[in-house]
Records
---
Amino acid sequence: MLRKYAILLGAVMALAWSSTYANPEDDRMAFEKYFTTKFPEVPLNDFQNGIYSVDPVARADWEQIEEFPPYELAIDAGEAEYNKPFANGKSYSDCFGDGAVRGQYPYWDSERKEVITMELAINECRTSNGEEPLRWNKGKIAELSAYMSYISRGQTVDVKIPEDDPEALAAYERGKQFYYTKRGQLNFSCFDCHGTGAGKGVRLEKLSPALGHTTHWPVYRSKWGAVGTLHRRFGGCNRQVRAKNFKSQGQEYRELEYFLTYMSNGHELNGPGARR
Amino acid sequence: MIKKTLMALSLATAMVLGSFGGGVAFADEEAVNHGKSVAFNRQKGNCLSCHMMDDGDQPGSQGPPLIAMKLRFPDREDLRARIYNPLEFNPNTIMPPFGLHNILSDEEIDAIVEYLYTL
């Protein structure tokens, strides 16, 4: 009798545990299923094309734009910058080898206890070699990022959350919390627009689905007339819902990138991208 | 048979019109116009970003079309509350709480309700 109770108690506790602490892989599968159910006609490997996976009219325009991609100049500028030696004679290749490293970011640094993004690593490469850091959102850093993403095309998103470090999981959880929290005067969470509202119109502009959202950054946005980084877009999204944006490459956005990129694990990197 | 169906249809139409057409006549025309301008203003209600309504250009499709509003929301206070704080009715809605977050003033929400009752 006692044994029976013990088993029952064990089962209840296991249930409680599993429902309180969903693991990231469960999250990712649920996330993927949400979008594949919502857009059954879209092949899984097409979500990397963002809004164009679900908006055939915009896609036709975009395919034309991709014949002479507006981000080409940025790739060239980024390549020149990548190969330019620092004042100390070293260069980016001393930090990143051939530079095709987009697939390694973002990652959890167990010693520093923080998420490292590629843009953060670019600036740390500079400062450790005695160079001034670049501004985070646009210009040189976006060009370097465009070049490095371009030569990383075809790699697979494979963000890892080290199981032996609970602080990595905590960072992921904070990113997830950020993603689903309603904020700003207009009270939108990231998921409100890019999950619930995905594929539906705000005026005539359709909202992009979140699955595959991080694969194609940095992006040349016609609205910007230049390439910009993912964190620049995060800031713009936050301001659009009338919230105060967080600092680019601050803890909040890096952990958001950690969560959001994990959600696209298995998808192909195809940056830089072109968007309206 | 066709004649009978037509008659039934026109009778039904008349009944529907009768049931919510009356509001227009009694509504304060000035408030209705004000409500429409607040509803269409991108810095104010910006309802068109998500709802098809009236003669508004380029409506979005996040929310349902705003038609037959008096029929669907016969209780004016209920309709008003749904604009003031829609989360009270559906915690997962993506519609902003226009009153609770001071996006619109009480007076502006009243004017919008007035206008919606003409749709």
---
Amino acid sequence: MKCYLQNLCLFAFLACGMTATVSATEIDFENDIFPILDDNCLFCHGEDEQESGLRLDRRGFMLRGGDSGLAAIVPGHPEKSYLVDAISHVDEDMAMPPDEDKIADEDIELITRWIKEGAIWPGQMDDVAEEEIDHWAFLPRQTEFDHHTIDGFVHAKLSEAGLSFSRPADPRSLIRRVSIILTGLAPTPERTFDFIAAFNEDADSAYEQLVDELLASPHFGERWAQHWLDVIRWAETNGSESNLYRKNAWMYRDYVVRSFNEDKPYDEFIREQIAGDITGHGDATGFLVAGPHVPAATVGQEPTAIRQARADRMDEVLQTVGASMMGVTIGCARCHNHKFDPISINDYYSMTAAFQDVEFGSRFPELGADHPRTLRAAQLRDELKTLREQMRSKGWAWVEDWTGYEEVHFPTKTIDELRIHFDGRWVMLDELEIFESTGEQRNVLAEDMGTVITDNPTTHVPNQPPKNLNDGVFGTKGWRGVSKKGNKETPWLEFAFAAPFDIGMIRLSSNREDFLETDYLEGMNQSKYGDFKLEIRDADGDWKPFASTSAMKKRSSENEERQALQSQIQETIAALLIEGPQPAFLGQFVPPVETYVLARGSPESPRDQVFAAAPKRLNGNLDVEPNAPGPQRRKAFAEWLVASDNPLTARVMTNRMWHHIFGSGIVPTPSDFGRAGAPPTHPELLDWLTSQFIDSGWSMKSIIRQIVLSRAFRQSSTPDQDGLAKDGSAQLLWRFPPRRVEAEVIRDSVLQASGRLDSTIGGPSYRIHNVKKRYAQWEVIDNHSDETWRRMLYQERMRRVDDRIFTAFDFPDCGQIRAKRPVSTTPLQALNLMNSDFVVTQAQLLADRAESESGPSIEDQINRCFELLLCRRPSQTELTASVEFAQTQSIELLCRTLINTNEFAFLP
Amino acid sequence: MGAIALSQLLAKDNLLASGLESGPIRPKIDDKNPYAPRPPHFDMPAKQVLVIYCPGAVSHVDTFDYKPDLYKLDGQKPPGIPQVTFEGPTGNIAKPFWDFKPRGESGKMVSDLLPNLAGMVDDFCFMHSLTTQTSAHPQGENFMNTGFTMEGFPSFGAWVTYALGCETDELPAFVAINDPRGLARSGKNNFGSGFLPAAFQGTDFTASNPPANLGRPNAYTPAADQASVSLLQRLNAKHLKQFPGDADLAARIASYELAGRMQTSVPEVMDIANEPAHIHQAYGTGSGTELKKAYANNCILARRLLEKGVRVVQLFNGSDPAGGNGITNWDSHSDIKETHAMQAEIMDQPTAALIADLKQRGMLEHTLVVWCTEFGRMPFLQANGTGRDHNPDAFTCFLAGAGVKKGYSYGESDEFGFKAAVNETSVYDFNATLLHLMGLDHERLTYYHNGLERRLTNVHGHVVKDILA
């Protein structure tokens, strides 16, 4: 801000000076201005050289500005013209001319006046410097094609290189390959043998049937969700300071799994993730806050640091959108115009205007009436209602634990006064609500209900008065009552209602903040008010208790029926807290503030105000009002993404599908379609397949199906010397390129082979970490016992935490976009897969399974182990070696060995 | 195809584009051994690097950056002190909590807080005008160790390992020795591989905790374990015959051989009990607090790793706040006199002994030593307090060993140690200089990730030539 203000002062000064000293003669560009530019600027900013991308030899270039993205001149507005800043040395780092003295004050004044008077440049008043877009990815797709099948395009390229397809893969390799690619799980031996038999009868029909079965499997969504979550570096912790757990963030993971399983059209998938809050898909917006963030509370108290942190959070949002859906890196434009791609600094900040209402945090997701979570919640609420009615009908009162708060239910009292009298001497509440048990079941403490609250004057804490009880502010700054030494009284709260109400429930908490934002920390969600009594006045006007929480607990423990009912209530609540629409880390929405271009990315240097838009040169006008509400802006942005003339969106996703199937995309840089990315190996194929994608109604399953049915996919992966020599990485697809499978595939396939994989879809993640203190690091405490035997997709994704086994297999740290995992081979992988408790445990379970399924014969057991892990029987030499091995060692050790083989770890 | 198009051929690291005057120099990674030694960009004396990292921010004005004006202004609040810094309102100037004395032949003024390190100033090259971009620890640690305040970038050690591989094929190329109390604030970021292949991340172990999964499981006898390894070799060899010429498969076979060697050599290198008594005494493994003893053992481990040819050793002296007994790192917002003293007791003797040991063995000839922290502390106290707040605008680190001037001080902070005043040196410059000392051009050591040729120094950084020997 400092520079900006200085700048304004300077102009105030210049403007005054001008009227006083400079004669009012008209400025003549050729005689007055051009010589100044020619002497001082054009050597570096002219036709031959354009330092920082800036040219000052044409008016159009001046209007556009250089790489900084700031207009060199804004006619009529010298105060907005970067040229004037530069020559007036407003900012030392951008003082021009460089390494020389400032140009003469009169010259600066002349240029300033020239701009002020409209920057008249005879003959160039219509000059514009719009750059042609000539990079393929930003141009419309081709519509005429030489081929009409994937194999047609691939074969053509192979022929050009003097190569051809390999022979078809054998059925065992094929089923293993396609099962892992589509579901992330190796096939079972039974399915493999069935397939081989059917394949030998009628290869095409057997294979098509298999593919359709795999596409319909609920594990398909798990596998493809994993890819999507990698790209957007989704995780269940913040990263940064204390790396806190993000409560219920997994709801978004489940949304992604469900979307892939339902084959949700990709355009709809985009709309929901960007603006699902307005269409009943609130759980989809976890997308927006998938990246890491620095919570506002941990950046310190300096205002500059707070502004910087907000700008950083906004950048994380844009990185997510840019890398996943647009397939371009837009981060560069945060500080200057993108060097390679048609994204200016103005575009960057216009995009931040489109997402200006997004903040990192939790909220109750907006879920449509047909959302599975809504349906389940309704069911559970009905059950709860019935249970509560049973309690009430007996005249019983009870306490419910909702984790972040408690509810005390009691038979209806029609009263106009109530006292809550605490047993303890030191109590703290952040929020308290009192509900009617009839009619609308209103909170009678709501502001417009006219209730007067007072507390015990002898325990009153002046800076934490009762009015804090209903202000919606969570945390430790609510109401407090403190009974000092010698005081015989304990704290109480009195409520005088505006009229008699039917009261039946009180909800209260000491700190609801963590309930909303995080949990899974030591000392979380503790109540700091203890037991209390509910009192009403008797005929004499004295307060008499009619219910007491300690008595409720006591009686409940004495009466079996009461206790049973209450446990049922508590179980239903526990289910609601997981399956119902609970607060979840899916982002918060805040009123959008005005958005400015931040010169060189600094929140301290705001320049022009900008309004929600996508990149201008990609037809980015969103057609929304400047002050449109946030959701409208995001919705419009989503519509721009999925518009039929957007050259990127569909191509990027088509390429991503190809990438996950073949291990490398048609464009080998799946999140960078810009100039710095790699060009497509098969441009026509990409466009043709993209058209197929759009024509299918954006059906991802239909494109994936088409790809895996191709000959290119179904060919053998066996190398041949000619192919290796001409195209070592098989980019042209003369063979199916084999590759090491991902961490998840290894882990899940081991569990499946041992028969211990819990294949439940969705829900809270399993935990391998300790419950930590707020300021501490996560520690892996159990990465192998039966609690963890689910698919690795459900392992809590903790940013930058090493799980001590599979992180070594290039499992991402979720700090940066990961459109493509590296595939490295390291001795640590070997150690983890040979020696970890996970492998040792699973090897034993595998041996047990082999024995129980195949009886006492060692040969049979060995055969079974090979089947379970490799989907085949051992060869004769393998069998001989294995028998010898098992006789001196053990079947268990054989299983450990097989888990470590290349055959197990590679996609055939 | 211009330079940009060339850089597209990126993704494959083995498509090396070297031999050019500028642009990325991609290390040729041997598929069979990603840790095989690789040549630097240019010749420099340093072949190995030891980074001693002090999380929490060491107070420069109480250690190495002598500011006599602080004695004059003690208890005053001269103009120019901001109302609010990281933790809140500011208090008055406080003179150093330890006396300064001239040390060594150079007469460098160093405080009594670190008497052992003070005795070695003639070997050190101080940098007094460092500045960083943040006042928050995790971002500061990220910035110092990965070149970015944000999450997810490769650490310095990972970059060096990616570029240079390792001289030994029996030990990990890059070892992170965490503080006995646990991980530092930014956790694994400090030694992680970010978006580089996992092969280049630091392997973390200490003198008392071996790397995860190094040892043979108790369930198997040594003979059984060996039989399993042999069978695996046979099965893999047979499988490889079906895929003649497939480098990835051969690489994975080789990685198991490497792992086998590590299983022998890591326990050997960790066996510090066999070090002679005078070494234990010099490092102080038998005296002082338990934390100090444990850190001293880690220091001996660091030397042994370097001796064996490990490329990068990163040694931590401090952890995340929840890890310890009373104090956990150098963060001293209250009672700095006590908390810095407790931390110094752990750090001083073992660290000094380690550097002296390296020197005595001639290892400083080819080893760069870097002592650093994420920022400094304020010359004034926090309001009504007894501690100093974070200072991102001036702090001190020192280098020693291969390629670095001895008994030298570069840059100055202002008269209070409040802001860098002469030769301001950013963390980018610092990291550019470290890479230069390792024979690496920070502008050409790049890795293509998501649309950009990423560098440790982003698009910034100038080598501080003045400190080069």
